[in-house]
Structures are given as structure tokens and as C-alpha cells.
Amino acid sequence: MTEETRANTRITGTLRSVDGKGVVRMEGSYDTGIDDLWSALTHAQRLARWIADVEGDLRLGGAFRATFTSGWEGPGRVDACEPPRYLLVTMAPGREEETVIEAVLVADGDQTRLVVEERGIPLEELAAHGAGWQAHLEDLAAHGAGREPTDWRTRWTELTPSYREQTVRPA
Is the preceding omega at residue 161 within 30 degrees of 0, hence cis? Predict the structure, then answer.
């Protein structure tokens, strides 16, 4: 593996198991203020530029439908919304594939620190979700910098083997 390939597949997330389900955690800093990053996470027009087309009610308690760049589509619900610091959504609420996505934002000078965690993932899908979240958040960084997102599927394919190397045992 060349140095360039190694750098291109460096993973930024962590995977773990809680109560027999998988958890993906991503942490990163973005070169923007907290209000701008919050907008990128909560406004349909901006979400469409980096992660998903979203239609519906994006307010607390609201229901929405999302079609992700990954190809997944389905319903979601906003469970907590504390602008500009905390967001909690349930994807596929009440279904077998239900997961919870939590985003925490912290202002840090001219940057904003973002922690995203998705919980409730079947363990056999954990590596795919890890690679997916990294590709999505790389696209968020590109959006913030005014660049076009990468081809999500290509990036996911590059990252997945590195995420599979993380050993996660049921907890």
C-alpha cells in the first residue's frame, strides 16, 4: 500500500458495541462558526448539498423523510433540538432497522468541534456505517469550504476495508 493510499484510507471514526448493537462515533473540527455548522446540519437546502435530500418537519418532534447519498431512504423523527449545540434524531422509528443519530457542536475559537454518534446499528453493518459516516462528514467539510462533495460510493468503497479491520465484539 502506497503512502498516498494509506493517507486516503485513514479512518477518523471509532466503532464499538453497546448492548449487542453497534455504535459509530466521529469527531472533527470544522473551519466555521457554530451557527453556520448548525445550519448545515439542520436546514434541508444545506443537507442536500452534503448528505441527504430531506422533506418534512425538521423541528422538535417533527417527522421527515430522507434520501441519503448512500442510497438509504426512509423516515426520521427529530427527538431533541437545542440550537446550536445539540441534535438527536431517530431514523426508521419503530422499525427493526431503527437507529439514533446524535450531534453535539462546541464552539472553539474560529472553529466548531462536531461529534456525531449513530447508535443501534447491527454489528454486521458497523464497518459500512463507519465508512459511510466518514464519507458524509468529509463531504460536510467540502461543503463548508465551498467545494463539491466527492463521489460518495467511491469514497465509501475506499474506506470500508479499513473500518472492517477494527475488531468490535458484542458488549
Answer: no
